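User: I'm curious what two different proteins look like when written out as structure tokens. Can you demonstrate?

Assistant: Sure. I'll show them one after the other, since each token string lines up with its own sequence. Here's the first protein:
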Amino acid sequence: MPVSVLTESDFVPKTPEAAREAFAKKAALNSAVFERLSTAAKQKAFRIAGVNNARLIQAVRNRIAASIKRGTTWPDVRREITRLFDVAGEELPSLGRLRQVFITNTQQAYNDARRELFEQERETFPFWQYLTVGNGVAGVNGVRATHAALHGLIFRADDPFWLSHYPPWDYNCRCYVAALTPGQARGTGQELRSLGYARRELKIGPNAAFERSGEGELKGIDAELAAALSEMLG
């Protein structure tokens, strides 16, 4: 019997473990090594800008992974990370920067876990819809106008749009994606857009300063990351 109805809970990780596993796959690299990676490899790596202590970076990565699993709040994570920097004898970056690292990476982890499920069911759900936490209204729940303008747009799962705009594609992005069957896509009443539409009509491009840029070309990334880790750890 073909699947025709998809609820949001079907594609939300049943436990935070799926998100933790997605995050734990990221290689912990110092800034010097990270900057030499290809764009595609960078999205599979974890770094703290300006920090080059390899053991410290790995420890912070592990603390964030544990917090995803436990559902720890930022104040608790902040205290743990502050202690790690104290023990390492390293200067603590601004709390604003650390909070940005925490929010961005946890959001990426949950969306990466969702995307893995979407990819597995792409034959049944070949369309993806872009959604915001503000229901498409700029300013609601802090949603930016550039993100609100994408709310509701539907693209095929293999459309190049997702290479640059699969959430999160900018700092503090809390947008998400819903997977749709062809019938569900038609039932939304939304036009099935193309990348040309998004660029021509909305003139929305990714933040050049944001490291994530979608899946990109994944061939050879594991080898590249392995070489980077080997270089960093000597």
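Here's a second, unrelated protein for contrast:
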Amino acid sequence: MNFQSIPPVEKPQAFLDTAFNTAAQHTQQLRSKKFKDRAIKARRLEILRVETATKLLSRQLLRVLRDFPSFEQLPPFYKELSRVTLDVPEVRRALAGLKWANENVQRLSRASLSKMRKSRDSRNLRISRTEIYGRCSSIIKQIGKQLSLLEETRKIMKGFPTIKTETKTIAIVGFPNVGKTTLMFNLTGSKPEISSYPFTTKTINVAYLQTPKGKIQFLDTPGTLNRFDKMNSIEKQAYLAMKLVADLLVCVIDLTEPYPLEKQLKLYESLEQIGKPVILFLSKEDIIDKKTIDEFKKDHESVSGVSELLTLVKDSLSSSP
């Protein structure tokens, strides 16, 4: 899913200005033509303005309705992410408001155009056009709050990660600054921002590895330190990705202990509760003495090499349904 491509939702006046200004411009070519009957020309001009303006208003409303996803049809990950980050019922009501506005603009357009086609009085035609412009303006302004809500919703959804929910997926998990992003680079060649201070990962980084048996998606997730209700929005995204997207979790342990080993192992134990296979991976092996690594491996089944980890990952995914 790619929520970044949803265009901005304009304010009511922008909708109206686009429709009415474009309608006025569309009449310029017709104005330059000569007509034997001035009444016929006046009628065509006013009808063209109303047709163009109402079609554009309808088109703009339909574009917003089309661009926003149907929450019922979202994959489980995005459906749950929307539920915990958005007021989905309110967003649905806002979209229903736009649908109402579109139906009313179209209804007014049909009724007014039918009336205008029967008129030969220039003054009455101008009055009819002014009336429908005014009524359309009123309709669009009535949904101003809904348009603002949808724009705020769009900004939130723009921060959703772009994840292929049907692709075999590995989530790399661990405390901040333990080497998760470096590990993903070593596995895939992807090189996102890597810094030497905690909480570097501000979002879920995504990378892919092509194998003879298909593509593997890797998610570099921010360190999760709290209960779900205490997590920030990025940590919630990470947790839901582990729970609803990942086929396998790789828990990165740093034996140099930027965080106490006891806390890192407690995170590992909490990952096991998610119900997905978990592999313990020891990072920074090049700066840790072999004795420390061997002692840890005696007590905990784990791997310390990228090639060994990659073999385990491929074997685990090939045996999963």
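A detail about the second structure: Residues 193-201 have pLDDT under 50 and may be disordered.
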